[in-house]
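In the previous lecture we treated proteins in isolation. Real proteins rarely work alone, and many bind small molecules. This record shows how such a complex is specified: first the sequence, then the SMILES for pyridoxal-5'-phosphate.
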Amino acid sequence: MSQKSELLFNESKKYLPGGVNSPVRAFKPYPFFVDHGKGSCLYDVDGNKYIDYCLGYGPLVLGHVNKKIVEDITTQLSCGTTFGVPSEKEIQLAKMVVDRVPCADMVRFTNSGTEATMSAIRLARAATNSKKIIKFIGSYHGAHDAVLVKSGSGAVGLPDSPGVPSEATENTILVPFNDKQAIEDIIKEYSGDIACIIVEPIMGNIGCIAPKDDYLSFLRKITSDNGIILIFDEVITGFRIASGGAQEYYGVTPDLVTFGKIVGGGFPIGAFAGKKEFMNMIAPEGNVYQAGTFSGNPISITGGISTLTQLGADFYSSMHDKGEYLRTGIKEVLSDLSIDYTVVGVESMFQVYFTSNDVYNYDDAQTCDVKAFDKYFHNLLDNGVFIAPSQFECGFISRSHNISDLDKTIESIKSSLI
Ligand SMILES: *Cc1c(COP(=O)(O)O)cnc(C)c1O
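The predicted 3D structure, ligand included, written as tokens:
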């Protein structure tokens, strides 16, 4: 039953381009319109219930309508929603980030992950007095011009979108993930003019691709040796993979890190953080300009404090167990069927690639049968399970997902693929 969703989508398309406010939401033939969320589930306007593994594309690590977040935000609402002057809670959340994240001495909060990566790249360029940035093919760092290049390989990428002048991306150099030689070659070629390497330590916007062997420590060493700033984009992995993010999990400390998603507890946010010597270059302490009307607003900050407070060691060990349980269950189901697949994931991130190849980079991911994924997605939806509608997104588990949700999901995956 999806009558109301279809009607709403048709109505929505008259007023919102494509009927949505962010492109990936507009899956075919029409997306379900949500009525409300609760715990691990979403409920649509037609009365259907879905176990939710999209979780707002990552932020809702505690599930929908977390009791403590609701209480804390309700209290904050009656004290004001934006001030234009500093408030104590900003220090509190900054301290929580600094306490948890190895590379973070200081933090600047923004309103989105996009702003965070844009600002971190600006800071890296200022700190090195260099123009070029290295980005991995298939990585996503938000929707600003310099990073809207993901397809095609070669030294310099053309923009993915009309409206982005080629000048805006001519300093963005693309390399395949998990490929050491490619980085060595580029650094030789552009020696002295590279400001930073920006990397998702686990690629989460092309499915889910973990770094191979010592790849991240290789990046750490080659950047240090060449005066290049290493930026980890932990907008997804921050506070999800481990308390200190992927940098703690893999034991590799970058110079700068970007956050978003979880650090706002379900409210709009971004942040970048790093060593003092770099962060003190940001205005007004330094002269690298960065600003935002709503930056550090008390609602998002309270959402972040309320969330991080609830993420203790028990949380991470239970997320670890749930991730293993789900991936093992999916593998068992799939091994009985005659289809090409690879189950991937780290901790509470997961995906099924419809290919029998190992997936280490963008090109490997392109070998997937996207039609098979599409069928899987729609069958899962009919079976009451919502995953992001693309082979090249990642699934997330929250604290609210219990074993019975995971069992039901594994069952649904089985019936979706038969
Ligand atoms: C979501 C995401 C961003 C962009 O964050 P927004 O808040 O959507 O602007 C940047 N980097 C990564 C790795 C992301 O997953």
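Summary for your notes: The chain has a mean pLDDT of 96. The CA atoms of residues 105 and 276 lie 6 Å apart.
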